[in-house]
Every structure is written in C-alpha cells, then in structure tokens.
Amino acid sequence: MATQKVSPIPDEPDGRTRGASRRRWLHVIAWAAASMALILLAVSIAMISVVNSDWGHSYARGLAEKKASEALGVPVQLQNFAVHLPTMSLDLYGIRVSGATPYPNPPLLQADHLGLGIRIVSVFGRKWYLD
Predict the structure, then answer these.
(1) Residues 42 and 67 occupy one common structural domain
(2) Are both 118 and 69 inside the same structural domain?
(3) Is the CB of residue 97 less than 8 Å from the CB of residue 105?
(4) Which of 11, 43, 68, 121 is the most buried (most CB within 10 A)?
C-alpha cells in the first residue's frame, strides 16, 4: 500500500498553520526586543562619551547652571561636577547660589563640595532614597 503524505490543515487564510504563525510572532518580538536593547546600549555609550569629553562636560555644566538659575530665579554658579554611575552618585564642586535681587550678597548657598547619591530600594515598588 502506498502511504499518503498528510499536510496539516491550514488554520490561517494564507495557508500557514496556527503554530507557524505563533512562532513567527515570537521571532518578531525577540528581534524587536534585541533591537531596542542594542539601541539603548548605543545611546548610553554615546551619552557617557559626550559627558566625559571636555566639550560635553562644559556643555552639561553650562546647561545645569542655566536650568538651575531659571528654576530658582537667582544666579547659580558651578565650577565642576563628577558623575559616578557605578555608585549612582553626583559630586558638585564650587557651587554658589546668589541671594534674591535687593540682597545678592551674602550668597544663599556656597559650598566647596556637595555629594548627592541615589539608593534604589525597590524598582517595582518605585522606592528610592536621596542621600
């Protein structure tokens, strides 16, 4: 007797079976996730490179001074800063916040060094502490 080859009954309009369609979607989702992770990694490396360059460092310092001055309504000066990604901390050096307009001197805040750290307690619970 001759054996007949039985093909699976197509479940989809284009002739594919439901399992093949599901595998295709998983393949697409895996490629999308890998692409997003690669893009995130590339952007992170680019940002770290820019901030560690002299031009990027001075641009970030100037931008921070400008934004802080606009938010507080008084001149803010910053000599330097250092970002420490492994410990998630920020060091500010030579910071000076002037007083309001009739009395700009003495400054409201003047410090040689300020340290700022973030400690994440729970990512899913969105709990973190500022040190």
Answers:
(1) no
(2) yes
(3) no
(4) 68
